[in-house]
């Protein structure tokens, strides 16, 4: 059963009721996630009303005036309810990207494919005119070398995807792009859609990849996982990705001749780099924490050269990636208390070890007589 929980955040929704009934409103699926939350905050700063829609509540405090709706994209009625009076949907919610999530094929399929179908259907029935889909490099890349690839490259055939997440993201992207030009209900024009394909996302507060990478470094697994020291890969800073999404939504509009309609764009920092080089600040900053789960796919793909041209995004969207480094990420980890912990042998350790020794002796003493009886 679908249960939609709505939560108005901040000073009684003050900013949303400032007397501007025609104010634009956008909805962000996956709005409690790392990128969705950041995008929502950035768009709100531009004076647009923002609804964050997610199956879980955000970990961070939601800024005043932003509205959070707890709901599931797999539930059409919840999505339709959430899309009232919305002019643009940023569809970011996804499942199964990394770690243990990758093992739950049914949920991956439900969220990434059926969830996306629901978003498209609800856009049509609610008359939402713009849909920007957050896709991934992985719709093209499946472990093969790609140097300066562009958007003319064909999709990786579905059966060649080494993981279900990438296969379902690919299916979802196709569905979104096919929906471009679809009639909106009640003669409200047509739906314009586009897809952005980001490289690996990084930035302060990123909790999905970076902690595991740090853990690989700590365990000496980094070289094993991140492979060839000569390979070139790409990343995208979260704020560059925000910029690309804002530009893409604008490029779906009549004022930009709907230039992005039906199009896909690779999005990265535009700076191919070796994994070792890129993550060096994390090694040197000696920041580490958390447990990794090494899935076969992650090992298979991460160390292979693959980078794409930003030309189409620059030309058609006006995308200009800014330069960022991992230093601010290291700082963020430090501010969270991560880093090498002193390993002094304290009085507490002494008491603990003494207690363990006593338990061991007690077990041995209780075992000896029965062992002797048995051997008689
Ligand atoms: N993180 C990366 O390196 C990377 C790289 C390429 C593409 N992407 C894509 O970028 C997007 C954002 O990535 P992220 O790192 O912020 O991910 P994230 O996991 O932090 O956020 C995804 C959000 O989707 C939500 N969600 C999952 N199932 C849902 C459902 N049924 N209904 C509503 N919400 C649901 C989750 O609760 C989560 O908050 C994703 O679409 C991902 O596929 C990410």
From TrEMBL:
The chain crosses the membrane at residues 350-368. Residues 27-283 form the 3-beta hydroxysteroid dehydrogenase/isomerase domain. It comes from the Eukaryota. Pfam families: 3Beta_HSD. GO terms for molecular function: oxidoreductase activity, acting on the CH-OH group of donors, NAD or NADP as acceptor. The keyword GTP-binding does not apply. InterPro entries: 3Beta_OHSteriod_DH/Estase (IPR002225), Lipid_A_modif_metabolic_enz (IPR050177), NAD(P)-bd_dom_sf (IPR036291). Keywords: Membrane, Oxidoreductase, Transmembrane, Transmembrane helix. GO terms for biological process: steroid biosynthetic process. Belongs to the 3-beta-HSD family. This is Short chain dehydrogenase/reductase family 42E, member 1.
């Amino acid at each position: 059963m679908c249960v939609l929980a709505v939560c108005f955040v901040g000073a009684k929704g003050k900013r949303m009721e400032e007397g501007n009934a025609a104010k634009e409103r956008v909805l962000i699926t996956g709005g409690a996630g790392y990128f969705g939350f950041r995008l929502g905050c950035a768009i709100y700063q531009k004076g647009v009303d923002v609804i964050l829609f997610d199956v879980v509540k955000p970990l961070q405090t939601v800024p005043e005036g932003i509205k959070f709706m707890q709901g599931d994209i797999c539930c059409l009625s919840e999505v339709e309810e959430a899309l009232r009076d919305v002019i643009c949907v940023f569809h970011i919610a996804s499942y199964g990207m990394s770690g243990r999530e990758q093992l739950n094929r049914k949920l991956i399929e439900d969220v990434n494919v059926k969830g996306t179908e629901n978003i498209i259907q609800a856009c049509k029935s609610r008359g939402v005119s713009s849909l920007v889909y957050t896709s991934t490099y992985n719709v093209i890349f499946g472990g093969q070398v790609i140097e300066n690839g562009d958007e003319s490259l064909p999709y990786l055939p579905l059966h060649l995807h080494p993981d279900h997440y990438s296969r379902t993201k690919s299916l979802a992207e196709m569905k979104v792009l096919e929906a471009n030009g679809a009639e909106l209900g009640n003669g409200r024009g047509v739906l314009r859609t586009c897809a952005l394909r980001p490289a690996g996302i990084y930035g302060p507060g990123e909790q999905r990849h970076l902690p595991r990478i740090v853990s690989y470094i700590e365990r000496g697994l980094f070289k094993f996982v991140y492979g060839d020291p000569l390979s070139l890969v790409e990343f995208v800073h979260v704020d560059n990705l925000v910029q690309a999404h804002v530009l893409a939504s604008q490029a779906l509009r009549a004022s930009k001749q709907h230039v992005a309609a039906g199009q896909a764009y690779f999005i990265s920092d535009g700076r191919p780099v070796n994994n070792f080089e890129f993550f060096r600040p994390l090694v040197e900053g000696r920041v580490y924490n958390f447990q990794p789960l090494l899935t076969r796919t992650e090992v298979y793909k991460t160390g292979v050269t693959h980078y794409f041209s930003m030309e189409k995004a620059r030309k058609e969207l006006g995308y200009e990636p800014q330069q960022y480094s991992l230093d601010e990420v290291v700082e963020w980890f430090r501010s969270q208390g991560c880093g090498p912990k002193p390993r002094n042998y304290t009085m507490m350790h002494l008491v603990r070890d003494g207690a363990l020794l006593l338990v061991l002796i007690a077990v041995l003493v209780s075992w000896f007589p029965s062992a002797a009886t048995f051997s008689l």
